[in-house]
C-alpha cells in the first residue's frame, strides 16, 4: 500500500447549522489522505498500476466541498471520502480532515477540525 496526502486545500463552502453559515459561507481547509490497494505502481513507475493522480482527485474534492449543502462538517468529510472511494477503485481508505476558522465560539481558538475515515 501507499499513502497519498493532499494537504491544506482551501475552498469556500456553505455548510453549517446556522442560517447565516448557509447563506454567507466560510473558508474551509481540507486535508485528504488516500491509501492505495497495493504499491505495485511504486515498482513499475506507471500510474495505471494503481497510483493516484492528485490532479484528477482535486476537482472532485473541490466540487464536493463547494457544492454539498450539509449541516455538519463531519457529513461533508464523509461525503468527500465516499466520492473518492467510488471514483478511484485503487483507493481502499480515505481520511478527510475539514477545518473551519470562522466558528461561533466565544473564546480564542484557531479553528474547529473534524476527521472522518472511510474504507472501501
TrEMBL record:
Database matches in SUPFAM superfamilies: Tetrahydrobiopterin biosynthesis enzymes-like
Associated pathway: Cofactor biosynthesis; tetrahydrofolate biosynthesis; 2-amino-4-hydroxy-6-hydroxymethyl-7,8-dihydropteridine diphosphate from 7,8-dihydroneopterin triphosphate: step 3/4
Limits of the Dihydroneopterin aldolase/epimerase domain: 4-118
GO cellular component: cytoplasm
Signal peptide interval: none
Record's catalysed reaction(s): 7,8-dihydroneopterin = 6-hydroxymethyl-7,8-dihydropterin + glycolaldehyde
Keywords: Folate biosynthesis, Lyase
GO molecular function, one term: dihydroneopterin aldolase activity
InterPro entries referenced in this protein's UniProt entry, alphabetically: Dihydroneopterin_aldolase, FolB_dom, GTP-CH-I_C/QueF
Presence of keyword Coiled coil: no
EC number: 4.1.2.25
Keyword Nucleotidyltransferase: no
BP-aspect Gene Ontology terms: folic acid biosynthetic process; tetrahydrofolate biosynthetic process
One Pfam family linked to the record: FolB
Protein family: Belongs to the DHNA family.
Functional note: Catalyzes the conversion of 7,8-dihydroneopterin to 6-hydroxymethyl-7,8-dihydropterin.
Protein name: 7,8-dihydroneopterin aldolase
Organismal lineage: Bacteria, Bacillati, Bacillota, Negativicutes, Selenomonadales
Gene name linked to the record: folB
Amino acid at each position: 500500500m501507499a499513502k497519498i496526502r493532499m494537504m491544506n486545500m482551501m475552498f469556500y463552502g456553505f455548510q453549517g447549522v446556522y442560517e447565516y453559515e448557509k447563506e454567507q459561507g466560510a473558508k474551509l481547509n481540507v486535508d485528504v489522505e488516500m491509501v492505495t490497494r497495493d504499491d505495485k505502481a511504486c515498482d513499475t513507475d506507471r500510474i495505471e498500476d494503481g497510483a493516484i493522480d492528485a490532479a484528477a482527485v482535486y476537482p472532485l474534492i473541490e466540487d464536493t466541498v463547494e457544492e454539498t449543502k450539509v449541516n455538519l462538517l463531519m457529513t461533508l468529510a464523509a461525503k468527500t471520502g465516499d466520492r473518492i472511494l467510488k471514483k478511484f477503485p485503487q483507493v481502499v481508505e480515505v481520511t478527510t480532515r475539514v477545518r473551519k476558522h470562522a466558528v461561533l465560539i466565544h473564546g480564542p481558538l484557531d479553528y474547529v477540525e473534524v476527521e472522518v475515515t472511510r474504507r472501501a
